[in-house]
Every structure is written in structure tokens, then in C-alpha cells.
UniProtKB/TrEMBL annotation:
The lineage of its organism: Bacteria, Pseudomonadati, Pseudomonadota, Gammaproteobacteria, Enterobacterales. It comes from the Bacteria. This is 4-aminobutyraldehyde dehydrogenase. Belongs to the aldehyde dehydrogenase family. PROSITE patterns: ALDEHYDE_DEHYDR_GLU (PS00687).
Length: 239
């Protein structure tokens, strides 16, 4: 089961190892990128793969839970590989446990970047901007929080905000759908209501969200613990 955010790379990776080990494979395509992942199947067919070696299934989002459980439950399916969100990963893990199927899960996170007191702040800011906003933050290891030593915070945070604000829209791109915008907007609202400070960017009304930075995020805020999977990041300072 491969995701939509890097549909060709991640689907190809999921197929390569089991095929190299002599297995047949079912690729369950992402509901948001079925045509893109279908190109892989077209290429394998053109290369002469025998029928039934690589099988491709797609479905509407509302049909995904039933389809996935049917796949996991089927006796011909011996292993499960899933890349996607943590909430869906929990469901996959429970279902695999129910049917005693081994599973490999690559899920989301809240990836931190540390800026220490001996950092080259120009390089650190450049790395933070790339890590946070490449592909509009829609990468499972995107930088989600930036933890800055107080010794360099006064110089680093304004520099980071300027670099983020200067990013051309063409380099960040849109998010995948309005559900992402709704989630990011809600995280921003929650953080601001609880005392965070908006450094640049902000809420969006369409799928083009500006790179967004919030400072002073605390444990009481959803953004402290929830992955945005979009172009909204947070700064923390430490002694």
C-alpha cells in the first residue's frame, strides 16, 4: 500500500524488494494518485512481466477500509507493507494482528531539527527551510519542529522567517487537497488561540498555502504533537 505524496518512487520501492525475492505482489494504489501509480503497472506490462505477477487495485476513499481488510484477510497475502499516516497505520497494524500477518509500517512523525549554539545560522536556516517546505511539507520526514538554542535564537528565528517568506510558490507547490488545508488551518488557529506567535504565512483559502512559521509553541497546543503534513512549522527555544 503506497501513498500519494511521492507516488512513483514510493510505489516502486514497495514493489522492488518482494519482486526481487520471487514473490507476486498486489499494489493497492493511493486514492489520490491512482493514475500516477498506474503508470508503473503500464511500464511493467510493457517490459513483459507475466500476468498476475504485479496486480493493481484502486478504489474510492469510502471503499478503502473494506478493501484493505479483505486484502489482509486473504490467505494468499503473506506480508503487508504500508506507507502512510499514523492513524491509518494503527488500523493496518490492528488488522494485521487480527489475521496474524507480518507488517512493515512507515508512518508519520514530528521530525525535529536542532539548532545549537555553535551552528552556522545561515546554513541552519537554509536547511530548515528546505527540510520543512520541500513538497509543501508533504513528506513523512519533513521538518515539523525547529528547536533553537537561546544563544542563537535572536539571530536565527528572524533569518528563518525571512527565508521562508521569500520562497517562491513554484518551489513549494500546492498541497494535495482542501482536507490538508482544513487540518493546517485548525492547527494554526489552535496554536494562536493558546499564545503562539505567527512569524510568517498563515491560514489559506485554497490549496496554495504559504510557508508558515509559528513561534512559542507549547505542550498545550495541538501543533506540539500533531503532524501537519503541510507547510506549517513551529519553533521552540531552549536554554
Amino acid at each position: 500500500m503506497a501513498p500519494w505524496n511521492a507516488p512513483l518512487i514510493l510505489a516502486t520501492r514497495a514493489l522492488a524488494t518482494p519482486l526481487a525475492c520471487g514473490n507476486t505482489v498486489i499494489l493497492k494504489g493511493a486514492e489520490l494518485s491512482p493514475a500516477a501509480q498506474g503508470l508503473i503497472i503500464d511500464a511493467l506490462d510493457a517490459a513483459g512481466f507475466p500476468p498476475g505477477v504485479v496486480n493493481y487495485l484502486t478504489c474510492a476513499p469510502e471503499d478503502a477500509p473494506a478493501l484493505v481488510e479483505s486484502l489482509i484477510a486473504h490467505p494468499a497475502v503473506r506480508r503487508v507493507n504500508f506507507t502512510g499516516s499514523t492513524p491509518v497505520g494503527r488500523i493496518i497494524a490492528r488488522t494485521c494482528g487480527q489475521y496474524l500477518k507480518p507488517a512493515v509500517l512507515e508512518l508519520g512523525g514530528k521530525a525535529p531539527l536542532l539548532v545549537l549554539d555553535d551552528a552556522d545560522i545561515e546554513q541552519a536556516a537554509a536547511g530548515a527551510v528546505f527540510g520543512a517546505f520541500a513538497n509543501a511539507g508533504q513528506i513523512c520526514m519533513s521538518t515539523e519542529r525547529i528547536i533553537v538554542d537561546n544563544a542563537v535564537a535572536e539571530a536565527f528565528i528572524p533569518l528563518l522567517a525571512r527565508r521562508a517568506a521569500a520562497l517562491p510558490a513554484a518551489l513549494t507547490g500546492p498541497v494535495v487537497d482542501m482536507n490538508t488545508i482544513a487540518r493546517c488551518n485548525a492547527l494554526i488557529d489552535d496554536a494562536l488561540a493558546k499564545g503562539a506567535r505567527l512569524l510568517t504565512g498563515g491560514k489559506a483559502n485554497d490549496t496554495h498555502m504559504s510557508p508558515t512559521l509559528l513561534d512559542g509553541v507549547t505542550r498545550e497546543m495541538r501543533l506540539w504533537r500533531e503532524e501537519s503534513f503541510g507547510p506549517g512549522e513551529s519553533d521552540y527555544s531552549r536554554p
